[in-house]
Amino acid sequence: MKLKATALCLLAGVGLSLQTHAQTDSLMLRKIFDEALVKGECYENLRYLCKKIGSRLSGSAGAQKSVAWSKKLMEGYGFDKVYLQEVMVPHWVRGEKEQGIIVMGDTRTPVAMAALGGSVASPKAGITAQVIELQSLKELETLGEARIKGKIVFFNRPFDERFIETGGAYGTAGDQRNVGPGAAAKYGAVAVIVRSLTASLDNYPHTGGTNYGDNPKIPAAAISTMAANKLSMLLKQRSAIPVKFFLKTSCQTLPDVLSYNVIGELKGTENNNKYITVGGHLDSWDLAEGAHDDGTGVMQSAEVLRIFKAVGYRPKNNIRAVFFMNEENGHKGGIKYAEQALKDKEEHIAALETDEGGFTPRGFSFERATPAFLKGINQQWKALLEPYETDRLVAGGGGTDIGPLRQTHPNIQLIGFRPDSQRYFDIHHTPNDVFENVNKRELELGAAACASLIYLIDQHGLSF
Q1: pTM of the entire structure?
Q2: CATH of the domain at 403
Q3: In terms of residue numbers, what domain contains 371?
Q4: Sign of dihedral through CA atoms 28, 278, 321, 431?
Q5: What is the pLDDT of residues 239-285, one digit of tens each?
Q6: Is the pLDDT of residue 67 over 80?
Q7: Within this chain, do residues 122 and 218 fall inside the same structural domain, yes or no?
Q8: Is 358 in contact with 439 (CB distance < 8 Å)?
């Protein structure tokens, strides 16, 4: 009987301890959200980044200006440590505005077009060639050189509308932009045009990187979804007049330049060599201001540390906000960060990436998520996050910039911030990615959500 009574007392003690922790955590999360929503600063910081600096493609003057300003911003917040981490990055420039024209005999119809990042230029006079429409890279192999050589390949596979999370549609359509130009060049194509990667029917071309690999390099560009539909309709009419396309670009790749990751840090009170990272990428494409991609992410990351200081929270572990450079066209910043962390023998517990826009937060995805882990984290933390509607804790990817930590720190948990995804690819990589398309409250809610998860990890770890 004594043993049974002792066991019951121990269980009661554990239950009381868990209840006390939950109450403490609940109060802290309320403080975090109150600070973000009432006194938040990430929206005005984003305004400055977008309106005073603007586009920030790696290697550009805008990117360098953003590095200097970001360091000054973090220093002004009084973080325990702020520094720049050197990284060599690609320097691709778009050059003069591109020209894309559908040509049918004497009829010439200009369309909205943007060169893909990393593309080579067309000849100075441009290229005019007959168009062949494809839905997949597999069709290149089926048609072969005999059907493709000398033509402009038009990849026109649309987003799969059945995906609820639109990132899934982006993933399944993305190969035609990422590797399509190089693949088409193997079969003698003279250029490639790609349907913009969006479900939206609009007249804005969506840029993005392409990688030729070891294949020949040919001009590559995206056309708007409205232009893609028009071109496809003309090709299907099978007129006696062949459908051709005129393409002219002047982009080029210059020598790599020195740039930087910008890092701010709060020192841990207990674990001197353990780190939790929250970050996004400072660089952006050159068509707009890089507001959602990924100005919101870097400003939310700095806001996490600012909130902790404002509410008087001193973390157990070192917490870093990292503004990665060169996510868009090379990922050099993320690679450098992981390499340096390994060289410095740092123990990294978790890394959270926010790079899916500043929309309403829904939750987080965890890369190393076993069924037992998901059950445990939902049992312990879902109720804490539920009042803020950011309690969707699921298996999934972390992000491009934190991905290299997977190889250097195999025990790390990589986490992706998951806001509502429905509008992101309407804006992503387009001239519409501007400050005016960011909602202040949604941005602040996301910053508070990220801070809340970082707090819970810092307090309790991730052993579920």
Answers
A1: 0.94
A2: 3.40.630.10
A3: 29-92+255-460
A4: negative
A5: 789 999 999 999 999 999 999 999 999 999 999 899 999 999 999 99
A6: yes
A7: yes
A8: yes
